[in-house]
Fold:
Amino acid sequence: MIRTIDSKLIRDTVKDLFIKANTSLRPDILFGLKLARKNETGAKTGYVLDIIIKNAAIAKKKMLPICQDTGMAVVYLKIGQSLIVKGSLKKAVNEGVGLAYKKGYFRSSIVNDPLIRENTNTNLPSIIYTDIVPGNKINIKVCAKGFGCENASKTRMFRPTDPVSEIERFIVDSVKEAGSRPCPPVYIGIGIGGTLDKAVALSKEAIFRPLGKTSKDRHIAKLEKSVLKKVNNLRIGPIGVGGNVTALGVSVLTYPTHIAGLPVAINISCHATRTAEATI
Amino acid sequence: MRKIFLPLTKEIMKTLKLGEQVLLNGPVLTGRDAAHKRLADSLKSGRKIPILLKGETIYYTGPAPKRIGEVIGSCGPTTSSRMDPFTPLLLKHGLIGMIGKGERSKEVILAIKKYKAVYFITIGGAGAYLSEKVKSAEVIAYKDLGPEAIYRLTVQDFPAIVEAL
Structure:
């Protein structure tokens, strides 16, 4: 059945989601950090984790951003094909982002041109991905992606005949090379398959999956588990002070790919992984 | 945990140990990518810079805007290695302390030794917590850079770990 909604509803939802994502740490991530704290015996590592956990509480209580890098706003829209949006959908999303960053006292981190680099002072524009799905609803996922960890992203086009162990090594080496720069303990999103851009998109979508859940595909769940173990054996630890936890989790998403290729993308997300989601 | 009072002096520097957890107290400057590039461009071409680097400590941060009644918004560290290309020059001009997050380049580690400076790390991603350790904040240069402007901060019991000496 055809349903009509006003674009203002989308604007307000996007605004609320970004305020929530930036000030209230995801419960699954907070749980992961508390679990890591419980399993940590090192005094320095424990001290750092205590501050990270305390930070989340302060941010929530005072409605402060968890991290001053409130990120570039990435918005994923799954639009039901029977939904009609009155007004401009794109404008509504950008207005929602602009309102959230202004009302939330979030940092404007976007420059108008990647080479000229003048701050837009609005944190706009955002990045919008759309997908058409059955139904008459709209699912909105938002991600405030900080660049300390975004800068640790990697992609590689593997040979289709390369063994899985090569992919594992690539991921572990990338985390090792990133060191403490992406604010460990991190949540590692991996995209495998599709084209170069599809693999990268998957790697970012992967971090929306609640921590602790595994892939439905048994061979992928096995890969996630193996990578997590190897990454934690690096002992980089929270902010690089060493310890048992370098990553809180690994989430792998896959897509069919070409007979000649095997794209792999890594998207490292910091311990302040900020995403939120709503369906209207 | 030992309290360190800024500005850093030769006497204080002698007492610092690698890996030591300390609490910093006193004045620091802020500066990140755009400010570093501007400072370095000016120094290289012999132009005056709007701050005195001698004996200073720079905290690599770009704070979030403050709410009415607050001193500063969230203000955790940014990735220090992006400042690496400019750091040896700033050390040469008297900079003595740096606060940030993550590893530094070999060149910077050597320059830190050469100029008897110190690099502290603090807790990345703990911007809300760290904002409570800032007692005053004022933009003192490059205001046009917005969050990348140079601020003068006064910090109290600001947690840091000695990462390089």
User: Anything to note?
Assistant: The first strand of chain A starts at residue 3 and ends at 6. Chain A is about 40% helix and 25% strand.
